Amino acid sequence: MPWHYEQSMERVQKHLTNLDDIEVERLDREMDLENLSEKTCRQIYGAHAYIDVRNLSALVNEMDDDDGRRHVIQATHCYQREVARIADAVGAVRVQFQSARTHLLIYRPIRNATQIAGKALLAQLVCDRFGDVFSETYATLPDLHVRSGSDIGDAIGTRNGVQGDRELLFLGAPANHAAKLLATGSDRRVSVAMRRALPEDLAAFVEDDPEGGLRLRRPTDTEFTKLLENYAVSWSAEGSRERLEADRRAFPLSKAAISSAGVKIDFDTLSFTNNKFAAGATLYGDVSGFTAYIDGATTTAAQREALKSFHAVRKEMAKVVADDFDGIRVQYQGDRVQGFFHMPPDDRTRFSEDAVRAAVGLQSSFELILKVLRPDLATTGIAVGVSEGDTIATKLGEYGHRDRLCLGTGVLRAERNEERVDRREIGISQNVRDNVPAELRTFFTWRDSAGCYVASALDQNVLDLAEGARDLNRGKPVFVRSAGAGMGISTRPGTGTRRSPSPSHGG
Amino acid sequence: MVGDAVTRWFETPAGRARLAHDEEVARHHQPGLRYEAGADGAPHLVGVVRIVTVSGIPHEIGTTIEFPEGYPIDEPLAFEVGTRFPHDPDHHFFQDTQRVCLWLDVASRWRPHDPDALAEFITELGTFYYRLLQMESNPGMPFPGPSFAHGWNPAYREHLAQVLRMAPGQIPRMRHALAGNLARRAWCPCRSNRRYEHCHRDVVGQFRSRMSPERLRNLIADLRGDSGTLMPS
């Protein structure tokens, strides 16, 4: 069922009613982050580090047969297992695997900036080294291109969902900024706040990035070994190589079954032994300006209200993707949602159109409903990116730490499009534009700076009225019906409509 | 004789009954409109017309509907209140006013003796606003769907071309017929090689009967190529 104003309004009102008693407290002592929930949130001082393998997703499209794809799946699973071990070794919490990107949080010792920043930096350096080990071990795959970024400060931690589909979500500048550091500049980057917090010996590795900001110098082998010793990080390249080999034996290619998705993918059933391969469209919807909004919420009451808005936005975004357009909500990533559309199988026209219409639905829910019901969202807006391509769907991790994952160039391009457009805009790739019907295509124009086709201020209202105008110009009649407190009007006949005489305007 | 006060339409028993029924109609079709007495004591409908697009998106348009002295024989007049739409000929507003131009008077759908005429009027008004919303949403778009040209005479010429089923350029040939100066047995000016009485006489007669004498005079002058004809409203 397509997006509908009243349905969206009802949903958001219901979400808001259920979010009346959110609790936000400063995290000043140990707490199992598993105990966070939608209503139990904590302001957590910590370092957020993102480790990204830039070319892992793109490998999927270089693998043109199942055997090649199995290699990618095996590599992804083994990669994430070792990254999870590195996180444990440096004392980080693995927040989420997001496609080929890993979000780590370091918050212990509580509010100890120096130690926290040090651990984050070590996580970056170790993951960087691990990239080398991985590339050597997987000689059949192109060398991994590992990038990382970190920032430190206060962010609000919360959690969505119910059993089996719960994600740890962080809102605030450090979580957001660390991810943004990955977009440009050198391969290992840190924020100014990180440098300020680092102990002297680690700060020595921070230098100015010629492309702006700060970067981490790669330590020599001797320096690296010494750092691990000094900070008691039990990781070595040799040990990592052995674990990788063991993982490869434990997760053999023969068990990485891939089947094409003839029916809608159920992520809950996916695992290393059950993966899906499908042509599909990926959508990323990001609440632009939300980080500034949440950072501006300095009182508990303001934070509570901001979280209420956040959860309402998040839930509505998922509903639009999954309920209105029959897509799959793959992940929430902070204030961003990732959706996937692949039905009917191989029908690129249809799933591309569904994804673009879902993007319009997201804009509609945000601009026409959420901003009206939550005026505090006035300074925010949604940026959406859509692309399509062959995609592998899998699920990583172990019980309690599972992450839904989509890999493919379509996923990467959708993310890039989203990052390059502004709030209230939708960026789509050339292939999606070619697939969608002319009446949608007409709203998108090429933008050099974004490298994609962009539509601004496109919501369902614009589509409705454009469709009406098109029909009227073709001589179609107008149909009217009583609609609650007004008059329903369209160029489509429907239940309870009557045909209005053809218009006659003059003068 | 006491004074020379004229009984206004809403003060007669029939007018009161009509007003009561109209109130029901308005409440049912557009609850956002309510009756108010104007400065002259005459009832006006004031408030918002609410129209809802196919995806359920509501639009409220500030509106006043006035009822002329000759109501219900004379149709109501609708005004868009506010500045949501540009009040210009491209948007089919009467020149420099907020009054909407729903139709040509000769093509009016107003049915004075139909008790539910106001409902139809409001529906037409909603349809008109729907078209303006399309223009608002798509800047640069011309008025969507069929419409007559700006200004009375061009509009009447277009309408006449439709009624007579002629190309607008051929209409000037019909000016004598429109002026009532063509004999029944004359050859029809449309060059059908048929007698006027067997060709266009009936439709011309119907058109003449619907036109006010002043507008008809001006239209004929316009067809003759005379300047100074009736300007757009």
Can you put this structure into words, describing what you see?
The complex is a heterodimer of chains A (507) and B (233). Helix content of chain A is 41%, strand content 26%. With 507 residues, chain A is α+β, with helices and mostly antiparallel strands. In chain A, strands 1, 2, 3, 4, 5, 6, 7, 8 and 9 form a 9-stranded mixed sheet that branches. In chain A, strand 8 and strand 9 (214-216) form a beta hairpin. The two termini of chain A are 41 Å apart. Chain B has 233 residues and is of the alpha+beta class. Chain B has a 4-stranded antiparallel sheet. Chain B has 6 helices and 4 strands. Chain B is 33% helix and 12% strand. The interface between A and B is large, with 42 and 54 residues. Strand 20 of chain A pairs parallel with strand 2 of chain B.
Given the helix and strand composition of chain B, which structural class is it?
Answer: alpha+beta
User: Which percent bin holds the helix content of chain A?
Assistant: 40-55%
* Oligomer description: heterodimer
Shape of chain A: globular
Q: Identify low-pLDDT runs of chain B.
A: 228-233
Q: Layout of helices and strands, plus pairs?
A:
The complex is a heterodimer of chains A (507) and B (233).
Chain A (H helix, E strand, L loop, with lengths): L4 H13 L5 E4 L13 E14 L2 H7 L3 H25 L2 E6 L2 E6 L6 H25 L8 E14 L8 E4 L1 H9 L6 E3 L1 H6 L2 H4 L2 E3 L5 E3 L4 H10 L6 H14 L7 E3 L14 E14 L1 H7 L3 H25 L3 E6 L2 E6 L6 H26 L7 E16 L6 E5 L1 H12 L4 E4 L1 H6 L2 H4 L3 E3 L4 E5 L3 H14 L4 E5 L4 E4 L7 E3 L7
Parallel strand pairs in A: 1-2, 5-7, 10-11, 14-16
Antiparallel strand pairs in A: 2-4, 2-5, 3-4, 5-6, 7-9, 8-9, 11-13, 11-14, 12-13, 14-15, 16-18, 17-18, 19-20, 19-21
Chain B lengths: L12 H17 L3 E5 L5 E10 L5 E9 L10 E4 L36 H21 L14 H13 L10 H4 L22 H10 L2 H12 L9
